[in-house]
Amino acid sequence: MANVLAELVSQLNSGALRVIDLTQPLSAQTPLLPLPPQWPNTPQFRLWEISRYDDRGPAWYWNGFETGEHTGTHFDAPIHWVSGKDLPENSVDKINPRKFVGPACVVDVSADVQRDPNFLLTVERVKQWERQHGRIPAGAWFLLRTLWSERTDPEQYINLQKDGPHTPGFVKECSEFLAKERDVLGVGVETVGTDAGQAATFDPPFPNHYIMHGSGKFGLAGLCNLDQLPPVGAVVIAAPLKIVNGSGSPLRAIALTP
Fold first, then answer.
1. What is the pTM of this model?
2. I need a labelling partner for 184 at 20 to 30 A (CA). Which of 31, 53, 124, 134 fits?
């Protein structure tokens, strides 16, 4: 086993393996998911200076910050949704850290999303991907490559219209297939949340959240650089902060890839 780890380090040092940052910058400009007015929204990210090599602290610089658990590139734990509230090990502090690491299966639907921002991934499209790349292994991160993260204008990123946001996602049956028949760790997306923008109108509302978290699975939202990953062969490490009873957390998601 030590040889395996030594080889990993050697491959990283030689550049044979690359570390890809899948995380968007976190700042006051980070877009937030807009909820209907009857529900409170997550607080915008806020950073304030405590000291910077001055009379408040002559040799050190540090900041305080405030934000919501589901801001920017973030992790959704099962307790985030009502369907997962009674599951064991459902908050970020209780999840076995082994489950933060898994192979990546990347499905490229960027051309579909360019034609239709409301594109929804189906079971048949996943099976089509499997016919080309092999069966999705249990314990994999299933990542939806849409190039949505290239929308650097917050208004275009949220794509809010009179009837709500318009962003891609999954049909209910696809989430059920991935969670129950393929036993993925969870799904990852480039959009502000793991459900489609119009998912409040679906049955059930926000079906990916309901099904994934009710099955003890996770979500990764706000990812980027998925275009730098192959369809198979990369490994994703997505570890949230260990917030006691936390429903999620901003995180620094990375991938190791040839």
1. 0.97
2. 31
